[in-house]
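Milestone M4 deliverable, item 7.
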Amino acid sequence: MINSSLILKPLASEDGEEIYRFFQHMPSENGFLNPFVGMEKTRFLREAIPQRIAYSQGIGLPEGHVPDTYFFLWKDGQIIGNYKLRPRLNDFLRNGSGHIGFGILPEHRGQGFATQGLALAIRELVSLPDFRDDEIYFSCYKDNPASLRVMLKCGGYIHHENETDYFVRISVGK
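Output delivered:
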């Protein structure tokens, strides 16, 4: 059951201050990359947010990238997590990080928020018009058992693995 105080919202300029605060406290770890930590706030608000919105629409993407949309998990008016949704995959993503990447602020981990947020993110992803797959693809490092548990709790199964990663799938039966 999803906590009714949790809301998943797409990145929006009007939430810029809170999004900035989130990224200043979110570490890059376990495959979650945070290119915004340490960025000057004015630059983040004027450049980074509009660029991320454009990327979500497929505008100005770097070579080889696909559109992705940042969604933020809100609890009581504060952002506690980030979910990156990619409705279409290229070969690199299909054999790597997949449709959804996510991270939860360290002080909010271990409380079920990642699982509840992922359930909300899955609902969002499968409702996107560009999502046409029968399964949602994920990966996580083997030394990150918490993320694996989150994926498995949301209906995932380990499809395959290599020396460093688990590759997880969730069937959506479109």
